[in-house]
Amino acid sequence: MKFKFAILAAAALISSAALSADNGFYVGAGIGASDVSAKDANWSATDFGWKLFAGYDFNKYLALEAAYLNGGSPSDQGLKVDVYTTDVALIGKWPVADAFDLHAKIGYGWWDLKPHGFDSQSGSDLLWGFGAGYRFGDHLIFSADWERQDTKYTDRADLWTVSAGWKF
Length: 168
Hints:
Blueprint: H1 2-13, E1 25-38, E2 44-57, E3 62-70, E4 75-76, E5 79-95, E6 100-115, E7 121-136, E8 140-149, E9 154-167
Antiparallel strand pairs: 1-2, 1-9, 2-3, 3-5, 4-5, 5-6, 6-7, 7-8, 8-9
């Protein structure tokens, strides 16, 4: 179901309005680290994480973005958990300089936690984060971001990334 919604969101982003001559459509990928802590348990772990994203800049202050976040498989005390989220979010931007911005993200994420040897858990909750971006020329975008997916099973499910993107 969540993949159908992600495909629908991506199709909306690629609509005829997004393909106009002066559009703000962008795609990108990021790498970094995930940091997960279990609620009401002495379990906390980090692992390599990554994300893929596509979005549309409506103007220099507001964007809509869909993303797939993979938090890897953090492991602690013999328990390994696969962490995934698909999300749709609004991005608010504050242009600090001509090519530099600070931004905040708020949206909704569909998450999966898959502990090895135990039943998988999934749900949907608030997703939010902060970051900074820098644009080289008209197309190349770099950013550093922190994102948190709220879940009922974790105190924190964070992804720290550095990303590169291409604006069409």
